[in-house]
Amino acid sequence: MKSYDNSGKLVSEITHFRTADGKSVTSNSQYNTHNGEPTNQNITVFEPSGKVTTTRIINGKLLP
């Protein structure tokens, strides 16, 4: 799901998917509205065992 500001520029997007081994992956990306480049991305992985892993990328993007 993508969010836009009042000028129609991309502000953020949230992506969610599941892997074949049952992991649930959610990524939340935020963008600079002046140049459209990603400013940060948070990636959270929930494993079926209950383990949660969170990764934060600053000034870039790891997952599409």
Rg of Cα set: 13 Å
Encode the helix/strand succession as letters: EEEEE
Taken together, the total number of domains comes to 1
Structural class, judged by helices and strands? mainly beta
> Which of globular, elongated, flat, extended, rod-shaped describes the shape?
elongated
Compute the number of helices: 0
Q: What fraction, in percent, of the residue positions are helical?
A: under 10%
* Strand element count: 5
- Overall average residue pLDDT: 94
Portion in beta strands: over 45%
Structure, explained:
The mean pLDDT is 94. The protein has a five-stranded antiparallel sheet, with no helix packed on it. It has 64 residues and is an all-beta fold. 6% of the residues are buried. It has strands spanning 2-4, 10-18, 24-31, 38-46, 52-58.
Briefly say what this structure is.
This protein is mainly beta. Helix content is 0%, strand content 56%.
Secondary structure: elements and pairs:
Blueprint: E1 2-4, E2 10-18, E3 24-31, E4 38-46, E5 52-58
Antiparallel strand pairs: 1-2, 2-3, 3-4, 4-5
Question: Which features does this protein show?
Answer:
single chain; 64 residues; mainly beta; five-stranded antiparallel sheet
